[in-house]
Amino acid sequence: MSSPARTPVLTSVIGGARVAAGPRPYRSTNPSRTADTVAEVSLAGAADLAEACRAARAAQDAWRDVPPPVRGQVVAAAGRLVEENKAALARVVTREVGKPYAEALGEVQEIADTCAFFSGEGRRLYGHTVPSEMPDKELFTYRDPVGVVAVVTAGNFPVAVPSWYIVPALLCGNAVVWKPAEYAAACADALYELLAHAGVPGGVLNVVYADGPETYQGLELALGAGLVDKVGFTGSTEAGSRIGELCGRHLQSPCLELGGKNPMVVAADADLPLAVEGALFAGFGTAGQRCTSLGTAIVHESLHGEFLRRLDEAVRAAPVGDPFQDVLYGPLIGERFADGFEKVLGWIGPGHTVHGSPATGRITAAAPRAGFVGDPEAGLFYHPVIVDGVGPGDELFQREAFGPVIGVAPYRTLDEAIELANAPGYGLSASVYTRDPATVFRFRRRISAGMVSVNNSTSGAEAHLPFGGNGRSGNGSRQSGVWVLDQFTRWQSMNWDHSGRLQKAQMDVRTVEPDLGFRL
């Protein structure tokens, strides 16, 4: 009788070659069936990350010299490969991080959409010709690649968010070193293979599997050696602050996409069923593990009771469980996320009332949930939680939860609602449900979020819109659309004086003398 095939070991890719497995193994498991090993991963060290940046530096010159329209062809080919492998890649996402399959298909489509958008940008990396104040002098501007881009991403969107960095960075002529979440290594490996087979040369895209401390030390080494020109990071506010500080020491401005405590304001004139539907998806889709997940529903006092009743009813009826089935959400991503959510549940205090499920915490035989799909004991499944009565004095109101829980708070005036919405200090996404345009534009002007939705959930990005936040949610950098080009290119200006003589700006300028004393 033959023994079962051993799970292959994933190793980092540096300079187009797989490195040998090292002494630091990591096991990536299926969070809906924790006994299922998805990938064995050999974790790299800080020196490996620095070496990958050195390999990227060596490869970047040749890639920069490939004409942008040709780089666009590589991006277009990547998009076609992603579409051809959409179902297979989505299955890897669902198996490794527990995202419902329908959502995983949407995530993969987002990669294809990103590639479709940026394939055309290869023919539109426009500069400008600018009129000079002097005769016989021409002024030009050019977009140049920054050089080597180090990208560090989380695993809640293990393939879509990395594509927001990698695709435009490559299109602009940069080489990339990507450090994916180790618990999403199989997803990362699949995306790397698609990009490599699209024609990205060896060394232009490097993948390093490492944990957080080694990643930070590796960035410290690479930045100190002058091997990295731009850092992109998606993850927690705390980790982003450390990376921002590190980059600042080297006079670099990173692209930081961090956490969120995203408010939904439900005005007195809101379409209540629509608001409840939006809250259900925004709060509990992906088990609340999105940076754009709903944090607090801030509901006008005239609708508060009915909103809570309807939301409680909708959440109790929503199927939870096996992510390959038709469910609202599946498991938490991994053990450390489950441990983190357990701490969040400890923020529920005596002044709060809890709704949404017959229990809180892990779904088990002893704490069951009606209508659960699959075997709750097999994975990291948690009850959805609605907590009414939260306010600015509560940790649950102030801090990102990253799990299937939302708070509910009443308000009286729009000014009060906006003050509550801004109070936690994040500024990623916000939504408002209303029929009144005046409310919409007043809310938009005063909310701190980088993204605002009207009569829609706090979650949902499109490839051609800027994505990013302010305050504790980021440093004002933006991803997606043409706006991300400013992250991965630098402007260079050139003046060409063909007059045959030295013309000094602001000094040798022809002037016109107006008669400013003239009156009608």
Key features?
15 helices; globular; alpha/beta; 7-stranded mixed sheet; single chain; 19% strand; 5-stranded parallel sheet; 520 residues
Care to describe what's here?
The chain is of the alpha/beta class. It is built from 15 helices and 20 strands. Helix 3 packs antiparallel against helix 6. The termini are far apart. The mean pLDDT is 96. This is aldehyde dehydrogenase (NAD(+)).
Topology:
Blueprint: E1 9-10, E2 13-14, E3 17-18, E4 25-30, E5 33-42, H1 46-64, H2 68-84, H3 86-97, H4 101-121, E6 129-131, E7 137-145, E8 148-152, H5 160-171, E9 175-179, H6 185-197, E10 205-207, H7 212-224, E11 230-234, H8 237-249, E12 255-257, E13 262-266, H9 272-284, E14 294-300, H10 304-317, H11 335-345, E15 353-355, E16 385-388, H12 395-398, E17 405-411, H13 414-422, E18 429-433, H14 437-446, E19 451-454, H15 485-488, E20 489-497
Parallel strand pairs: 1-5, 8-9, 8-11, 9-10, 11-12, 13-14, 13-18, 14-17, 16-17, 18-19
Antiparallel strand pairs: 2-3, 4-5, 6-7, 7-20, 15-16
Helix pairs in contact: 1-7, 2-4, 2-6, 3-4, 3-6, 4-5, 9-10
- Global geometry: globular
What share of the residues does DSSP label as strand, in percent?
15-25%
Low-confidence segments, ≥5 residues, pLDDT <50? none
Backbone CA Rg: 25 Å
What's the total helix number?
A: 15
Q: Count of DSSP E strands?
A: 20
Largest sheet: 7 strands, mixed
Span of the ends, CA to CA: 106 Å
- Strand neighbour order, sheet with most strands: 15-16-17-14-13-18-19
SS class = alpha/beta
- List the quaternary state of the chains: single chain
Mean pLDDT: 96
> What proportion of the residues is helical, as a percent range?
25-40%
